[in-house]
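JOB MANIFEST
job_type = single_chain_structure
chain_count = 1
residues = 199
[input]
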Amino acid sequence: MMSSGQQNHSEMEAGDSDNLALKDVYKLLKKEIESPSLLSIEPDTFQKIAAALGNLKGQGYEGVEAKIRDRMADLLANSARLLIETRQHKIKSGYEPLDYSKLTDEEKYVLDGKRESDRRIGEVVAATIKGRPKVLESISARVRSKQIVVRFLKPMEQFVGVDMGKYGPFQPEDVATLPFENARSMVESGLAVEVHIPL
């Protein structure tokens, strides 16, 4: 018969069909690091890791068991971070043709953002070196008119935005749509966080 401590430890170690245990993520990470090319992983790998972390952090242990839980959560999170970074390095390196069937949806999402970034850089470079100031003016106008949704973390007095509009005052947890430049400044200073609105 298992003691309650042994049972709790087993629960912390156990991975079910919806989760990945620490040992599973470690094995994936080890294989990925040892392989020169990008490996095929299950499409829902990162979702299973997130579910495992959510379940682990949600367990109400106390004392030593809480410390073990927290340490396991740290190890799992760090292993997941290394797995993602290792795979991203291989994807970006371009040493071999990219096989989309080996990518998770999350990796495709990152790659799509990178390609959009590269496209924008190319757009600015081309307009500049081909002497097209009107294209650059159009880009500037788009940036100046862009709005970002933010959630405030700290109180903020009323201010005049770069578009000369008045905004605020705001309290923590207030959500507002602000001009791009003002929003970026507040996010970078820690006054607010950007809220990503799904398209």
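[summary]
The chain has three domains: 4-99, 104-143, 146-199.
The two ends are 53 Å apart (CA to CA).
exit_status = 0
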